[in-house]
From TrEMBL:
InterPro entries: Beta-lactam/transpept-like, Glyco_trans_51, Glycosyltr_51/Transpeptidase, Lysozyme-like_dom_sf, PBP_transglycosylase, PCN-bd_Tpept. Residues 302-547 form the Penicillin-binding protein transpeptidase domain. In the N-terminal section; belongs to the glycosyltransferase 51 family. It catalyses: [GlcNAc-(1->4)-Mur2Ac(oyl-L-Ala-gamma-D-Glu-L-Lys-D-Ala-D-Ala)](n)-di-trans,octa-cis-undecaprenyl diphosphate + beta-D-GlcNAc-(1->4)-Mur2Ac(oyl-L-Ala-gamma-D-Glu-L-Lys-D-Ala-D-Ala)-di-trans,octa-cis-undecaprenyl diphosphate = [GlcNAc-(1->4)-Mur2Ac(oyl-L-Ala-gamma-D-Glu-L-Lys-D-Ala-D-Ala)](n+1)-di-trans,octa-cis-undecaprenyl diphosphate + di-trans,octa-cis-undecaprenyl diphosphate + H(+); Preferential cleavage: (Ac)2-L-Lys-D-Ala-|-D-Ala. Also transpeptidation of peptidyl-alanyl moieties that are N-acyl substituents of D-alanine. This is PBP1A family penicillin-binding protein. Its main location: membrane. Keywords: Carboxypeptidase, Cell membrane, Cell shape, Cell wall biogenesis/degradation, Glycosyltransferase, Hydrolase, Membrane, Multifunctional enzyme, Peptidoglycan synthesis, Protease, Transferase. One of its GO terms (cellular component) is outer membrane-bounded periplasmic space. It is found in: Cell membrane. GO terms for biological process: cell wall organization; peptidoglycan biosynthetic process; proteolysis; regulation of cell shape. It comes from Salicibibacter cibarius. It holds the Pfam family Transpeptidase. Gene3D superfamilies: Biosynthetic peptidoglycan transglycosylase-like, DD-peptidase/beta-lactamase superfamily.
Length: 672
């Protein structure tokens, strides 16, 4: 090392020794703020945590932490030089400082006094603190402080809170299996959460048990008993979890690490000010209506998300009906089939491919051949209700006609729907098959809600945003985000699709079936558009105003079939009440009509231009010069001419349908 190097180390050691023991009462708190600056949660550290003496902590806890974090803890003087050497070598090879070799002493020093910046200045100061701890504080006290100050996730700081929250046990009573599980959490409290990712958590637990066995902390019989032990988790105490938007807060913590690459140790250390996008009023009303609508005596679950389509800011998020009973975030982590809620993407693609709101297709039981085997694909309408006649795209959207949707999917290229949905922001894998028109590929509530934003904002895809800014305890900005958006849809066609989605609330459309939004139309107090959808196990409602998109899902976690007769309207009621309550006091804005779009009255019976001499009509938008030119009076009182016209349309449709099916299925690129 040389004389100068040795002298330098002696000086550092001398300074560390002369400074005496470091102050042990410092603490920092991480504070989460709403979009208007209101504090929604404050996570305390240091003396704010529930402290447990080391002698009152199960020895299995000590053994587990030493096995996984610092096997030489009782032998070194603050540093494990072998691990440091290996880490330095790896960092030099990778030209980074990504790999650490921190001992328990170093981690405790960092948690108490320092930030987690990966800089040499921080590492030098950390070394000084660690030396002061090692030379002036007994090993047992360091270990005691460490297990009492680390973050175990879901608001539990320190081993006693963690033991009580996860296992409803005292830290003194934890067995080897439970201790190993808890020892694995601080490395990534969100990533290894046993509530959200039980497989990850228990894989890490088994790894730690292996290490404890290898290091002699567990005899073979104890080790095998621990491996066989069945872990069961308790809900956290109500007072620990009754905070604003708990599902949202978990999502924020995860995105900081996974999306923005914030060092997990920074979150563990605390001292952060995290400014989020949540709107407390919208959040409160959404939580209230989810709780009010979902039965307390039934395992039926629900999730809801509200997003500002102009920025992508998430204003409300509910991941279940009771966080303390189930922290699993169904708004983000549950992937379910969206059913007919997927049709707006289909019909936008159809408009791009030459359809208009008045394009006629026949609604009748239809069998589509299966290109990859025997049998056929035979979709059906809800309750087997069909027009048995030609209907327009506008009517198909309002009634959610499945036959029209699948035929539309056939008439387009196989990838058109997939490309449109992906352009809107759908990231989950989609299968380019006939049934995708009816929403058979699984998505989550957040991405589907975000995917509706281009319809609401004039065609711009937006990235969802939970976090505006993060600062450390000294006010340094660690992260600052801006809205991310790009034009993906033509504004005129996005508006026409929105106009079509408004028809689900329009009683003038009632014909062979009632519009799908008739049960809640009377509750809407402002212009809104949307689409409902269902599968045997799911019920959805996604809709929007110019300033808010809200998506709601209900169903059972285990995919038990839903009683749509009893529960089929819940998602719609949550949606309309959360939307109206969340926008209470806001101006009632309508959607802005872009140039090149005109409104035309269409006859409900024929799909042609309306006339006072004909029957009921509805108003819908078209690109200029694309509306029907023929008037409904052409066939007035002329049943023979009308029948001939229908027969001609049917023949043309059948020819086009078969031609498309041959082209589609002949390509062998997709299946039903």
């Amino acid at each position: 090392m040389g004389v100068l190097g040795t002298f330098g180390l002696l000086v550092i050691f001398g300074i560390a020794y002369a400074l005496g023991p470091p102050p042990m009462e410092e603490s920092q708190s991480t504070t989460l703020y709403s979009s208007d600056g209101e504090v929604i949660n404050e996570q305390h550290q240091g003396q704010e945590r529930e402290w447990t003496d080391l002698e009152d902590i199960s020895p299995h806890v000590v053994d587990a932490f030493i096995a996984v974090e610092d096997r030489k803890f009782f032998d070194h003087h603050g540093f494990d030089y072998t691990r440091i050497g290996a880490a330095v070598l790896n960092n030099i090879q990778s030209m980074s400082m990504s790999q650490g070799a921190s001992t328990i002493t170093q981690q405790y020093a960092r948690n108490l006094f320092l930030n987690h910046d990966k800089t040499w200045d921080r590492k030098i100061r950390e070394a000084l603190y660690a030396l002061r701890l090692e030379w002036h504080v007994p090993k047992e006290d360091i270990l005691e402080g460490y297990v009492n100050t680390i973050n175990f996730g879901h608001g539990a700081y320190g081993i006693e809170q963690a033991a009580q929250m996860y296992f409803d046990a005292s830290a003194s009573d934890l067995n080897a299996a439970q201790s190993a599980l808890l020892a694995g959490l601080p490395r990534g409290p969100s990533y290894y959460s046993p509530y959200v990712y039980p497989d990850r958590a228990e894989d890490r637990q088994q790894m730690i048990l292996d290490m404890m066995h290898e290091q002699g902390a567990l005899e073979t019989a104890e080790y095998e008993e621990a491996l066989d032990y069945t872990l069961t988790y308790e809900a956290a105490e109500e007072e620990e979890l009754e905070t604003t938007a708990p599902y949202f807060q978990d999502a924020v913590e995860r995105e900081l690490v996974d999306r923005y690459d914030l060092d997990p140790d920074v979150l563990e250390a605390g001292g952060l000010d995290i400014h989020t996008t949540i709107d407390p009023d919208m959040q409160e009303s959404t939580e209230r209506y989810v709780e009010a609508e979902l039965p307390s005596d039934d395992p039926l679950q629900g999730a809801a998300v509200s997003i500002d389509p102009r920025t992508g800011d998430v204003k409300a998020m509910v991941g279940g009906k009771n966080y303390s009973e189930s922290p699993f975030n169904r708004a983000v982590d549950a992937h379910r089939s969206p059913g007919s809620v997927f049709k707006p993407f289909l019909y936008y693609a159809a408009l791009e491919n030459g359809f208009t709101a008045a394009t006629p297709l026949k609604s009748e039981p239809t069998s589509f051949p299966n290109p990859h085997g025997d049998g056929s694909y035979e979709p059906g309408n809800f309750n087997e209700v069909y027009a048995d006649d030609f209907i327009t795209l506008a009517q198909a959207m309002a009634y959610s006609d499945n036959i029209y949707a699948v035929k539309t999917n056939v008439f387009q290229e196989p990838e058109a729907l997939v490309e449109t949905a992906e352009a809107a922001g759908i990231e989950s894998p989609l299968s380019a098959n006939l049934s995708l028109a009816l929403g058979t590929s699984e998505v989550n509530v957040l991405e589907l809600t975000k995917g509706y934003s281009p319809f609401a904002n004039g065609g711009e895809q937006v990235e969802h945003r939970l976090i505006e800014r993060v600062e450390d305890h000294e006010g340094n900005v660690l992260l600052e985000t801006e809205p991310e958006k790009q034009q993906v849809f033509e504004p005129e066609l996005a508006y026409i699709t929105t106009d079509l989605m408004k028809l689900m609330f329009d009683p003038s459309m009632n014909d062979y079936a009632a519009v799908t939004g008739h049960s809640i139309a009377h509750l809407l107090q402002r212009p809104a558009a949307g689409k409902s959808g269902s599968t045997p196990s799911d019920s959805w409602m996604v809709g929007f105003t110019p300033e808010l998109v809200t998506g709601v899902w209900i169903g059972y976690d285990d995919n038990t079939e839903l009683d749509h007769g009893e529960y089929g309207q819940i998602a719609k009621r949550i949606w309309v009440n959360a939307l109206e309550s969340g926008l209470d006091g806001h101006l009632k804005q309508d959607f802005s009509t872009p140039e090149g779009v005109e409104e035309v009255d269409i006859d409900l019976d024929t799909g042609l231009l309306a006339d006072d001499a004909c029957g009921p009509s509805y108003t819908v938008s078209f690109l200029e010069e694309t509306a029907p030119e023929e008037s409904c009076v052409t066939y007035l009182d002329d049943e023979e001419a009308e029948e001939e016209a229908h027969e001609e349309r049917k023949n043309k449709e059948s020819e086009k349908l078969m031609d498309k099916l041959k082209r589609w299925f002949g390509s062998d690129e997709s299946d039903v």
